[in-house]
Amino acid sequence: MSEEFTYRGKTVEELKEMNLEDFSELLTSDKRRKIKRGLKDNEKKILEDLEEKDTVQTHERDMIVVPKMIDKTVEVYNGQRFITVDVEPEMLGHRLGEFAKTRKEVSHSAPGLGATRSSKHVPLK
């Protein structure tokens, strides 16, 4: 009884049949503008490679996830290594960089060496 995924009222099958211009009409204005101005050569190459292969490595973090990329794997560079991203329908309209974090998670612990008495103070509340 799970509902089928829809993006702005369109099913995944309908989205896959659309061309890039029609899909861009469903996006927000900044992403629509990027597609209207034309994809970069590297971004076009990614889409071509995904038609042939299931996995592609890229540095293009600002590439918008389009319907052609659904159910494929894209390895996105985060500045140190490639992060594997399995593209799902829920990712449509987002950028690839959103799924490959560039910064570590901060975990704070006890005060370090050389901390002053006032900075060592931890409030009870």
Question: How are the SSEs placed, and which strands pair?
Answer:
Blueprint: E1 6-7, E2 10-11, H1 12-17, H2 20-24, H3 29-37, H4 41-52, E3 55-58, E4 73-77, E5 82-86, H5 117-120
Parallel strand pairs: 3-4
Antiparallel strand pairs: 1-2, 4-5
End-to-end Cα distance: 46 Å
Strand content: 5-15%
Strand numbers in spatial order across the main sheet: 3-4-5
Globally, the shape reads elongated
Largest sheet: 3 strands, mixed
Explain how this protein is built:
By secondary structure, this protein is an alpha+beta fold. Helix content is 29%, strand content 14%. The chain is built from 5 helices and 5 strands, in the order ββααααβββα. The strands form 2 sheets. A 3-stranded mixed β-sheet has the order 3-4-5, with helices on one face. A two-stranded antiparallel ribbon has the order 1-2. The radius of gyration is 20 Å and the shape is elongated. The N and C termini lie far apart (46 Å). The model has no long low-confidence stretch (mean pLDDT 90).
Notable characteristics:
two-stranded antiparallel ribbon, three-stranded mixed sheet, 29% helix, 125 residues, alpha+beta, single chain, 5 helices
Task: Provide a short characterization of the protein structure.
By secondary structure, the chain is an alpha+beta fold. The protein contains five helices and five strands. Helix content is 29%, strand content 14%.
